[in-house]
């Protein structure tokens, strides 16, 4: 039995071979219904794109480098899964780079692999993006959760959701709220802190910024004594993993959540709804962010600098669960 090709698929579906090719290499230019028909026919026929042949004809490897700061943080596997699915719809595979929160390593790491990939996606980079762009030469690049002039990016806009979280705590009677900040070199942490300070000021709540902590369970644990010293009755944590650590640290000090202290996280990672009580948090459309980042990247690959500098925001939403309650008497 002969191996299926774009020509046999085109003949089967009575469309042009170029349309079949675009369904894989540039899906945005093919109607959704038609693209789904092509992908279904390809799956049934056992067709898959031949990356090696494409590399010889186009000079492209079909690999996209993805830089992330910490794959052990549950937010990033969600994002990576979305990026993988979006990339494979464009016949691409990902080369994943974990900087382990070491900003000084990011430039070196991307420089080492820049010759192997067609382009890069920088997800929540800790280094200055200008340094990273310099390290990869003229390769196309998009950012996730970082805005840099001249660089295409997509990000989660948490401002309204954070305002909703602070308003929720105010409604419950909390007058002093502790902010457990994220890493000092995190653009997202800086934005969330600014949004929390603005929301607290507008709603007449005292916000005690406890400083920067690692975006990890241990970081949340480290912050628990400072939470107690602040005399706050509620906590806004940089992310869910930090919030888990805060809850555990407070429990170790004999305090209950939410009876003694309310806790709000951010990101709505899968474990947030599995803990007891379930974590009150801010949820983000991670899959949409991933799809948009890959789409921006391929627009850059195909159209060059004309597409550079596009910024696409996605709004998050506040979700009330079990770790917030009325201020204790």
From TrEMBL:
GO molecular function: DNA binding
InterPro entries associated with the record: HTH_LacI, LacI/GalR-like_sensor, Lambda_DNA-bd_dom_sf, Peripla_BP_I
Residue intervals of the HTH lacI-type domain: 4-58
Keywords, ordered alphabetically: DNA-binding, Transcription, Transcription regulation
Signal peptide: none
The name this protein goes by in its record: LacI family DNA-binding transcriptional regulator
């Amino acid at each position: 039995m002969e191996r299926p090709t774009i020509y046999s698929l085109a003949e089967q579906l009575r469309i042009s071979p170029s349309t079949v090719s675009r369904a894989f290499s540039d899906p945005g230019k093919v109607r959704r219904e038609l693209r789904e028909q092509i992908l279904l026919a390809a799956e049934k026929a056992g067709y898959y794109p031949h990356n090696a042949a494409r590399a010889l004809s186009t000079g492209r490897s079909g690999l996209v480098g993805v830089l992330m700061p910490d794959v052990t943080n549950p937010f990033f596997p969600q994002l990576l899964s979305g990026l993988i699915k979006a990339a494979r719809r464009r016949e691409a595979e990902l080369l994943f780079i974990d900087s382990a929160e070491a900003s000084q390593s990011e430039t070196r790491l991307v420089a080492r692999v820049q010759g192997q990939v067609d382009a890069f996606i920088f997800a929540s980079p800790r280094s200055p993006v200008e340094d990273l762009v310099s390290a990869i030469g003229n390769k196309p690049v998009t950012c996730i959760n970082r805005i840099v002039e001249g660089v295409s990016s997509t990000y989660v806009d948490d401002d309204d959701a954070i305002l909703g979280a602070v308003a929720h705590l105010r409604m419950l009677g909390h007058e002093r709220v502790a902010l457990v900040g994220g890493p000092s070199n995190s653009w997202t942490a800086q934005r969330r802190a600014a949004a929390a300070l603005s929301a607290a000021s507008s709603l007449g709540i005292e916000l005690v910024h406890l400083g920067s902590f690692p975006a990890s369970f241990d970081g949340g644990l480290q912050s628990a004594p400072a939470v107690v010293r602040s005399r706050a009755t509620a906590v806004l944590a940089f992310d869910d993993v930090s919030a888990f650590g805060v809850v555990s640290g407070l429990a170790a000090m004999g305090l209950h959540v939410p009876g003694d202290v309310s806790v709000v996280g951010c990101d709505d990672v899968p474990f947030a709804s599995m803990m007891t009580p379930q974590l009150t948090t801010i949820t983000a459309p991670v899959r949409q962010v991933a799809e948009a980042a890959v789409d921006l990247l391929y627009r850059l690959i195909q159209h060059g600098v004309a597409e550079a500098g596009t910024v696409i925001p996605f709004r998050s939403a506040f979700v009330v669960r079990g770790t917030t309650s009325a201020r204790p008497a």
